[in-house]
Amino acid sequence: MTRWTDFAAVKQAVSLEAVLRHYRIPGLRRHRDQLQGCCPIHGGGRDDSFRVHLTKNIFQCFACQAHGNVLDFVVAMEQCSLREAALRLQQWFGIRAPGLRWHPVAPGRQKGKLVRKEEGRNLPLPFALTGVEGNHPYLAQRGIDPATAAEFGVGFYPGPGLMSGRIVIPIRNRHGQLVAYAGRALDDRSPKYKLPAGFRKALELFNLQQAVATGARIVIVVEAILIACGSIRLDSRAGNSVA
Ligand SMILES: [Zn+2]
Description:
Layout: H1 7-13, H2 16-23, E1 29-31, E2 34-37, E3 50-53, E4 58-61, E5 67-68, H3 70-78, H4 82-93, H5 107-118, H6 137-141, H7 146-152, E6 155-157, E7 166-172, E8 178-184, E9 193-194, H8 208-213, E10 218-223, E11 228-233, E12 241-242
Helix pairs in contact: 3-4
Zinc ion binds next to loops.
């Protein structure tokens, strides 16, 4: 993976409009120099809270207060660091060293390339949330004691950002690398669960890393408390196969 980056050059090279197209954000309306619609960051229902100024190349949400440039937008959507956001934009839009010149790729080709490149893996997060409270009344109410919360890293996140005010559940890949947080609402608000944009949940099996660590060859898979149950045979050479 490319490790160099230049924030100013990335901001210059990539338009917010192109980034919104990359995320396929629906329902944005154009009014002169602005785009307007539902906020893809906090997922609210108001269709005028999110505004993009096309010539200034900045965005703002009047509901969740998120605002900034293309890099800030990707940070909010991906829950990643600024550097990681710049690296992703370089990768998505084919911006190469030296000079980070803009190399447009035909839409069809770009789409195919992106899918192939990203298929099969969620990238590890370059950070972990801090200040997650495992001893929270909501968890107690759901029968999760502080020891269990600590074991799984689950807790209430009071900080800012996508997971603000939610119960966060760290999701790790089979190697134990943190790849995302799922954020559950404490009340009836929608969405009940938030996942970062671009995260492919079909690729991960929650807590698989702990099963792998025991040396077991088969894991029991349970979904939504005994609605569905099955077993998977673990094979490190050929990937996982459902039995
Ligand atoms: Zn918002």
